[in-house]
Design a protein that fits this description.
about 220 residues, flat, 8 helices, 3-stranded mixed sheet, mainly alpha
Length: about 220
Protein backbone atom coordinates (compact mmCIF):
# COMPACT_ATOMS: atom_id res chain seq x y z
CA UNK A 1 0.00 0.00 0.00
CA UNK A 2 1.41 3.37 -0.94
CA UNK A 3 1.46 5.86 1.90
CA UNK A 4 -0.66 8.39 0.00
CA UNK A 5 -3.36 5.78 -0.58
CA UNK A 6 -4.33 5.03 3.02
CA UNK A 7 -6.77 7.90 3.40
CA UNK A 8 -8.60 6.99 0.19
CA UNK A 9 -8.83 3.36 1.30
CA UNK A 10 -10.16 4.39 4.70
CA UNK A 11 -12.75 6.72 3.16
CA UNK A 12 -13.94 4.01 0.81
CA UNK A 13 -14.32 1.60 3.73
CA UNK A 14 -16.30 4.06 5.83
CA UNK A 15 -18.55 4.90 2.87
CA UNK A 16 -19.16 1.20 2.33
CA UNK A 17 -20.21 0.75 5.95
CA UNK A 18 -22.75 3.53 5.71
CA UNK A 19 -24.07 2.38 2.36
CA UNK A 20 -24.99 -0.89 4.08
CA UNK A 21 -27.62 0.87 6.18
CA UNK A 22 -31.08 0.46 4.60
CA UNK A 23 -32.42 3.75 3.25
CA UNK A 24 -35.56 3.48 5.35
CA UNK A 25 -33.40 3.59 8.47
CA UNK A 26 -31.44 6.72 7.50
CA UNK A 27 -31.96 9.53 10.01
CA UNK A 28 -32.84 13.02 8.91
CA UNK A 29 -30.65 16.07 9.46
CA UNK A 30 -33.11 17.20 12.12
CA UNK A 31 -32.87 13.86 13.93
CA UNK A 32 -29.08 14.06 13.98
CA UNK A 33 -29.10 17.68 15.14
CA UNK A 34 -31.40 16.77 18.03
CA UNK A 35 -29.17 13.85 18.94
CA UNK A 36 -26.18 16.18 19.21
CA UNK A 37 -27.98 18.14 21.93
CA UNK A 38 -29.00 15.09 23.97
CA UNK A 39 -27.09 14.10 27.09
CA UNK A 40 -28.53 10.58 27.14
CA UNK A 41 -29.02 8.86 23.80
CA UNK A 42 -30.10 5.43 25.06
CA UNK A 43 -33.61 4.59 26.17
CA UNK A 44 -36.39 6.95 25.04
CA UNK A 45 -34.31 8.93 22.55
CA UNK A 46 -33.07 6.04 20.45
CA UNK A 47 -36.33 4.14 20.90
CA UNK A 48 -38.29 6.90 19.17
CA UNK A 49 -36.97 5.54 15.87
CA UNK A 50 -38.34 2.06 16.59
CA UNK A 51 -41.83 0.66 16.19
CA UNK A 52 -43.79 -0.40 19.27
CA UNK A 53 -42.97 -4.04 18.55
CA UNK A 54 -39.26 -3.28 18.09
CA UNK A 55 -39.18 -1.40 21.39
CA UNK A 56 -40.74 -4.38 23.11
CA UNK A 57 -38.12 -6.69 21.66
CA UNK A 58 -34.98 -4.66 22.46
CA UNK A 59 -36.10 -4.08 26.04
CA UNK A 60 -35.81 -7.80 26.76
CA UNK A 61 -32.58 -9.41 27.90
CA UNK A 62 -30.97 -12.30 26.05
CA UNK A 63 -32.52 -15.04 28.18
CA UNK A 64 -36.00 -13.60 27.71
CA UNK A 65 -35.51 -13.24 23.95
CA UNK A 66 -34.39 -16.85 23.54
CA UNK A 67 -37.34 -18.09 25.61
CA UNK A 68 -39.88 -16.03 23.68
CA UNK A 69 -38.53 -17.30 20.36
CA UNK A 70 -38.66 -20.84 21.72
CA UNK A 71 -42.33 -20.35 22.68
CA UNK A 72 -43.13 -18.80 19.30
CA UNK A 73 -43.89 -15.34 20.74
CA UNK A 74 -41.06 -13.72 18.78
CA UNK A 75 -39.64 -14.70 15.40
CA UNK A 76 -35.92 -14.68 14.76
CA UNK A 77 -36.44 -12.27 11.85
CA UNK A 78 -38.40 -9.78 13.96
CA UNK A 79 -35.79 -9.86 16.72
CA UNK A 80 -32.91 -9.54 14.29
CA UNK A 81 -34.53 -6.66 12.45
CA UNK A 82 -35.11 -4.78 15.72
CA UNK A 83 -31.48 -5.12 16.77
CA UNK A 84 -30.13 -4.28 13.31
CA UNK A 85 -32.27 -1.15 13.17
CA UNK A 86 -31.16 -0.05 16.64
CA UNK A 87 -27.51 -0.57 15.69
CA UNK A 88 -28.01 1.41 12.47
CA UNK A 89 -29.50 4.32 14.39
CA UNK A 90 -26.69 4.25 16.94
CA UNK A 91 -24.04 4.19 14.20
CA UNK A 92 -25.47 7.28 12.54
CA UNK A 93 -25.71 9.20 15.81
CA UNK A 94 -22.21 8.29 16.95
CA UNK A 95 -20.66 9.05 13.56
CA UNK A 96 -22.60 12.30 12.98
CA UNK A 97 -22.33 14.17 10.63
CA UNK A 98 -22.15 11.08 8.39
CA UNK A 99 -25.12 10.78 6.08
CA UNK A 100 -25.87 9.45 2.63
CA UNK A 101 -27.64 12.52 1.33
CA UNK A 102 -27.40 16.30 1.09
CA UNK A 103 -23.90 17.80 1.27
CA UNK A 104 -22.39 15.82 4.09
CA UNK A 105 -19.51 13.50 3.26
CA UNK A 106 -20.23 9.88 4.29
CA UNK A 107 -16.53 9.08 4.09
CA UNK A 108 -15.23 11.69 6.55
CA UNK A 109 -12.82 9.52 8.53
CA UNK A 110 -12.31 12.10 11.28
CA UNK A 111 -15.50 11.00 13.01
CA UNK A 112 -16.20 8.00 15.23
CA UNK A 113 -17.80 4.70 14.34
CA UNK A 114 -19.34 2.13 16.65
CA UNK A 115 -19.73 -0.39 13.81
CA UNK A 116 -16.78 -1.66 11.78
CA UNK A 117 -18.83 -4.17 9.78
CA UNK A 118 -22.56 -4.15 9.06
CA UNK A 119 -23.79 -7.69 8.46
CA UNK A 120 -27.53 -7.04 8.37
CA UNK A 121 -28.22 -8.98 5.16
CA UNK A 122 -26.32 -12.00 6.46
CA UNK A 123 -28.11 -11.73 9.80
CA UNK A 124 -31.60 -11.49 8.32
CA UNK A 125 -30.95 -14.47 6.05
CA UNK A 126 -29.66 -16.47 9.02
CA UNK A 127 -32.77 -15.48 10.99
CA UNK A 128 -35.07 -16.49 8.13
CA UNK A 129 -33.39 -19.90 7.93
CA UNK A 130 -33.91 -20.33 11.67
CA UNK A 131 -37.58 -19.37 11.39
CA UNK A 132 -38.01 -21.84 8.53
CA UNK A 133 -36.42 -24.56 10.68
CA UNK A 134 -38.76 -23.70 13.56
CA UNK A 135 -41.79 -23.75 11.26
CA UNK A 136 -40.92 -27.21 9.95
CA UNK A 137 -39.69 -28.85 13.14
CA UNK A 138 -41.58 -27.01 15.86
CA UNK A 139 -38.38 -26.64 17.85
CA UNK A 140 -35.33 -24.41 18.02
CA UNK A 141 -32.05 -25.23 16.34
CA UNK A 142 -29.88 -24.57 19.39
CA UNK A 143 -29.79 -22.84 22.79
CA UNK A 144 -29.06 -19.46 21.16
CA UNK A 145 -31.67 -19.86 18.40
CA UNK A 146 -32.41 -16.40 16.96
CA UNK A 147 -30.35 -14.42 19.47
CA UNK A 148 -28.59 -11.43 17.82
CA UNK A 149 -24.94 -11.16 18.78
CA UNK A 150 -22.41 -8.47 17.88
CA UNK A 151 -18.73 -9.31 17.64
CA UNK A 152 -15.62 -7.31 18.35
CA UNK A 153 -13.78 -6.66 15.09
CA UNK A 154 -11.13 -9.27 15.80
CA UNK A 155 -13.13 -12.34 14.80
CA UNK A 156 -13.29 -13.54 11.20
CA UNK A 157 -16.66 -13.96 9.47
CA UNK A 158 -16.80 -15.30 5.92
CA UNK A 159 -17.49 -12.51 3.43
CA UNK A 160 -16.45 -9.66 5.72
CA UNK A 161 -13.30 -7.76 6.66
CA UNK A 162 -11.56 -8.16 9.98
CA UNK A 163 -9.44 -5.04 10.40
CA UNK A 164 -9.29 -4.32 14.14
CA UNK A 165 -9.18 -0.70 12.96
CA UNK A 166 -6.03 -1.12 10.86
CA UNK A 167 -6.35 0.44 7.40
CA UNK A 168 -3.67 -1.96 6.13
CA UNK A 169 -5.95 -4.92 6.91
CA UNK A 170 -8.88 -3.70 4.80
CA UNK A 171 -9.65 -6.27 2.12
CA UNK A 172 -7.03 -8.68 3.47
CA UNK A 173 -6.63 -11.56 5.92
CA UNK A 174 -4.63 -9.92 8.70
CA UNK A 175 -2.61 -8.10 6.05
CA UNK A 176 -2.26 -11.11 3.74
CA UNK A 177 -3.67 -11.10 0.20
CA UNK A 178 -3.93 -14.92 0.15
CA UNK A 179 -7.17 -15.58 -1.82
CA UNK A 180 -7.75 -18.83 0.09
CA UNK A 181 -8.04 -16.83 3.31
CA UNK A 182 -9.39 -13.36 2.47
CA UNK A 183 -13.12 -13.41 3.37
CA UNK A 184 -13.03 -17.22 3.25
CA UNK A 185 -12.65 -18.22 6.90
CA UNK A 186 -14.62 -18.08 10.11
CA UNK A 187 -13.00 -17.86 13.52
CA UNK A 188 -13.73 -20.90 15.66
CA UNK A 189 -15.97 -18.93 18.01
CA UNK A 190 -18.01 -17.74 14.99
CA UNK A 191 -18.62 -21.32 13.84
CA UNK A 192 -19.58 -22.30 17.37
CA UNK A 193 -22.02 -19.41 17.79
CA UNK A 194 -23.68 -20.16 14.45
CA UNK A 195 -23.95 -23.85 15.32
CA UNK A 196 -25.80 -22.87 18.50
CA UNK A 197 -28.33 -20.80 16.53
CA UNK A 198 -26.94 -17.32 17.16
CA UNK A 199 -27.44 -14.52 14.63
CA UNK A 200 -24.33 -12.42 14.00
CA UNK A 201 -25.38 -8.97 12.85
CA UNK A 202 -22.41 -6.60 13.16
CA UNK A 203 -18.82 -6.11 14.23
CA UNK A 204 -18.07 -3.32 16.66
CA UNK A 205 -15.00 -1.29 17.53
CA UNK A 206 -12.53 -2.45 20.13
CA UNK A 207 -11.55 -0.47 23.19
CA UNK A 208 -8.09 1.10 23.02
CA UNK A 209 -6.80 -1.02 25.89
CA UNK A 210 -7.22 -4.19 23.80
CA UNK A 211 -4.42 -2.92 21.53
CA UNK A 212 -1.99 -2.47 24.40
CA UNK A 213 0.29 -5.36 25.32
CA UNK A 214 1.42 -5.86 28.93
CA UNK A 215 5.12 -5.46 29.57
CA UNK A 216 7.27 -6.36 32.53
Amino acid sequence: MQIQDWQAIAKAKVANIHSSIPKEWILSDDDLSRAKKERTLTGPFIEQFLTAREKQIVRHNSIEIVEKIKRGEFTAVAVTRAFCKTAAVAQQIVSHPFCLHNNRDPADTTKNNCLHEIMFDFALQTAKDLDDYYAVNGSVQGPLHGLPISLKDQFHVKGYDTTMGYVGWIGTYEGSQDPTKVHQLNSQVVDELLSLGAVLFCKVTRIKEMSLLPVD
